[in-house]
Amino acid sequence: MPEVPDLGVADRPRGTEVGTPATVRRSGRHQAPAPSRSFLAELPVLVLVAFVLALLLKTFLIQAFFIPSESMLPTLDVGDRVLVNKVVFEVRDPRRGEVVVFRDDDGFAGPDTRTVPQRVVDFLTSGLGASPNERDFIKRIIGLPGDTVEVRQDQVLINGVALEEETQAEGGYLFGPDMGQTFGPFTVPAGSYFVMGDNRTNSADSRSYLGTIPAEDLIGRAFVVIWPVTRVDTLPIHAPAGD
User: Fold this and answer.
1) Which one of 3.20.20.70, 2.10.109.10, 3.40.50.300, 3.30.2020.30 gives the CATH number of domain 39-234?
2) How sure is the predictor about 72, in pLDDT bands with cuts at 50, 70 and 90?
3) How many C-beta atoms lie closer than 10 Å to residue 72's C-beta?
C-alpha cells in the first residue's frame, strides 16, 4: 500500500490550516454565543426600578416641591422647585429662620374631592416636583414652642425682643414694601411652630387661618432651589445670633 505523504504546514492547501477560521467553520465545531437579552427588552425593567427607587427616596429621604404662590418672595418665586430634607427633624428640632414644608392636616385647602386615580397621579407628579400640591405649604419658622410672637409696624418681636430681619434691598429675605402690620402678642403652644411667609403682606400663615403648625405636620426643611437653573441656590437658616 503506498504511503500517504505527510504534508507539512507549508504544503497544506490554502484555507485548511489547523485552527483557522475556515477549518472551524467547515467543521461546525464553533457556534456563535447565544444572544443575550436585548437592551430594549430590559429597558422597561430598568425604568421601573429607577422609578421605584425615586419613590422610595421621595417617601423617606428627599422630596421635590413645586412653589405655587408668591407668599415666599423674594426667596422663592412661582414655579421654583425646591428639595426638602425629610430626615432632618428626626435627628434635631426645627430652628428659627429655616424654610419648612408642612402638610394641611386641618383641611384649610377645603375638602379633598379627588378621585383615587387623581390622588395617585398627584402623589407621583407633585412628589417629584412636577406640579403643585395644594395641600402642602411652605413658610419660614419665626416662633418656637413657648415663644411670644408680636408684630408692631411690620417689626417682629420674639419675647419682646426685635427679630433681626432684613429686606431684599438690604440683602435679606423680606419682601417690601412695609404695610404697618400688627399682630399679637401670641404665645406659641408647646410642640408647635409659628410660621410666616417672606412676603409678609401677601401670605396666609400663622397670623391667619393656618395658625401654628404642630411638629408632626412638618414634612421637612427646604434646603436648595433646583429649578429653574437661573435660580439655583441654597436656602440657609437665617437665625439671629444666640438662637
Assistant:
1) 2.10.109.10
2) very high
3) 27
Domain positions in the chain are: 39-234
Range of weakest confidence among 101-115, 131-145, 165-179, 223-237:
101-115
Of the listed 58, 69, 71, 206, which one is catalytic? 71
Query: What backbone phi and psi angles, to 5 degrees, belong to 36?
Result: -75, 170
71 is catalytic: yes
Count of Cβ atoms closer than 10 Å to residue 146 Cβ: 12
Looking at residues 62-74, what average pLDDT do you find? 93
pLDDT at position 26 over 60: no
CB atoms within 10 A of CB 213: 25
Among 234, 237, 232, 4, which residue's Cα sits nearest to residue 100?
Answer: 237
Here the cell at position 31 is 457556534
Nearest 5°: phi and psi at 167? -80, 170
86 in catalytic set: no
Taking only the tens place, the pLDDT of each residue in 165-211 is 998 888 899 997 677 789 999 999 999 999 999 999 999 999 998 99
Buried b / exposed e over 100-137, threshold 16 CB at 10 Å, is: bbbebeeeeeeeeeeeeeeeeebeeebbbbeebbebbb
- How long, in residues, is the chain? 243
- Listed in sequence order, the residues at least 6 apart from 56 whose beta carbon sits closer than 8 Å to its beta carbon are none
Active-site residue, from 139, 192, 203, 206: 139
